[in-house]
Amino acid sequence: MTTPINTDAQLDTQLRDRLRAAVYHDAMPRWGDVKRRAHALGPRLPRQRLVLGLAIAAVIIAAPAFAFATGVIDFSSAPSAPEPVKVIFGKLDAIDPLHGPGAITGQTKIVHTFHTTSGSYDLAAAPSRDGWCWGIVHRDMTCNTPDSGLNYGYNQLPAVGNEPPLVDGSIAAAGVTRITLKFEDGSTINLPFVQVSAPINADFFLYEIGPDHWDEGSRPSTIAAYNADGTVVGSGWFIRESDAPVVGTQG
Amino acid sequence: MGATTRQIERVYRSRYSGFVGAMTAVVRNPEDAADVVQDGFAQALTRRREFHGAGPLEAWIWKIALRKAFDRLAGARVQVPLRELPELGLPDPETDPELEAALRQLPPRKRLVVYLHYLADLPYPTVAEICGISEGTVAATLSQARVALAESLAERRPEPARTARGTR
After folding, report:
1. Poorest-confidence range of A104-113, A204-213, B93-102, B126-135?
2. For residue A194, is pLDDT > 90?
3. In chain B, what residues touch A242 (CB-CB under 8 Å)?
4. A247 close to B (CB below 8 A)
5. Please, which residues have CB within 8 angstroms of residue A223's CB and are 6 or more apart in sequence?
6. Which domain holds residue B50?
7. How far apart are CA A92 and CA B36, in angstroms?
8. Residue B90 lies in a domain
9. Is B165 domain-assigned?
10. Which residues contact A229 (CB under 8 A, 6 or more apart)?
């Protein structure tokens, strides 16, 4: 412990050795546990692109009754999803066999269309073994359970390619009255969301981040869902690649 | 772009020991450290599409894991801004009291750089990416930390026992 220190290299070696001895651990890697925890967080399964072309447009045009702006959407009266959407939902088990959400693909429906400045986005949903599977057509497909909490996705800013900066997500419809997005500049916005009735029983939202919130310092920072009592029932934050602790030489 | 599950798993399997080692120093005990690392990688898995490849994947995962650690240090229900560094842990004073006392002299920010470099074996560029500073600042921070530690360790080192010959 008291070997004389003569050079930076010796100090480096001694520091490394002593630090490692002082924080000794015998933990072993457990990748399976990481995947289980990821599942509990609400897995965001690999993006499945759908190319439906006019078929999906025809379905939407033919079924205007489900195109609510907000409110409760009656799942039973929503139109059946095009076959390619069902196929993708059916593949979710193969994509993530550990979780095996067990989407009931035959009941996949297009339940809503979100309209933003960059276009319209169709929301597909299907009941699953333990909850529901959902996705924005041409974007991600994923599955949640009632205890998944707030599951959300975000196209990070700055936008890459032609990807619009969208925040979308879902949470079990357990009395959620408000879903609030907070920005780095301290401002907040309550996101419009829709609720889909049984057997889905979940709330969904999709919001396009406006140019006022594209720059560093004003981008999304946290998101939270509240019930009528103001209690947070689900929350999360947005990691940025530029996000880092400030480590200056001034301590 | 996004990262794949396989890429994240590769980082996990190849760098696990460094993650837990450095995190043990940050959160003060190995059990919490292992838990934070598991949570950090789980979060990285669920948010892998947010990785756009601006820096190393490992640095991106470190940011997520450190955020988990800082949140834990501040209390489970509080979201700590990543730019506000909480008091970081120190090695067990019973294991190495000299080192613990020397590290205690360092501000948390320098301590984090020391942990990431010496315990996680991270090169300067990766430490720089994680901490949001330049490589030069990492080098300067480590140099200052080395000097401070050397001085502190020297002050605390017991006087060498005088030999019989020396006392005559």
Report:
1. B93-102
2. yes
3. 54, 132
4. yes
5. A150, A152, A167, A169, A179, A180, A181, A182, A235, A236, A237, A238
6. 5-156
7. 28
8. yes
9. no
10. none
Q: How many domains does chain B have?
A: 1
Q: Which DSSP helix (H) or strand (E) runs through A193?
A: strand A193-196
What CA–CA distance (Å, rounded) separates A30 from B18? 15
pLDDT band of residue A204 (cuts 50, 70, 90) is very high
Q: What is the pLDDT of residue B116?
A: 93
Say whether pLDDT at B122 is over 90. Answer: yes
Tokens 């901490």 locate to: B131
State the average pLDDT over residues A147-176: 76
By Cβ distance, the residue of B16, B20, B39 closest to A37 is B39
Q: Do A20 and B144 touch (CB under 8 A)?
A: no
Query: Which A residues, 137 through 176, put their C-beta within 8 Å of a C-beta on chain B?
Result: 140, 153-154, 156, 160
Determine, yes or no, domain membership for B168: no
Q: Do B118 and A16 touch (CB under 8 A)?
A: yes
Chain A positions touching B130 (Cβ under 8 A) are 244-245
pLDDT value of position A158: 53
Structure tokens belonging to residue B54? 């601006």
In this structure, what is the dihedral angle of CA atoms B10, B12, B15, B21, given to the nearest 10 degrees? 180
Interface mutation vs chain B, best among A11, A12, A19, A36, most B CBs within 10 Å: A19
Quick one: tokens of B76? Answer: 């489970």
Out of A11, A153, A245, name the one closest to residue B131 (CB).
A245
Whole-structure pTM value: 0.56
CATH number at B123 reads: 1.20.140.160
Per the domain annotation, does B163 fall within a domain? no
Instruction: Dihedral sign for Cα B91, B95, B97, B102, please.
Output: negative
Q: Render the burial of B57-89: b for 16+ CB within 10 Å, e for the rest.
A: bbbbbbbbbbbbbbbbbeeeeeebebeebbebb
Which of B16, B43, B141 has the CB atom closest to A249's CB atom?
B141
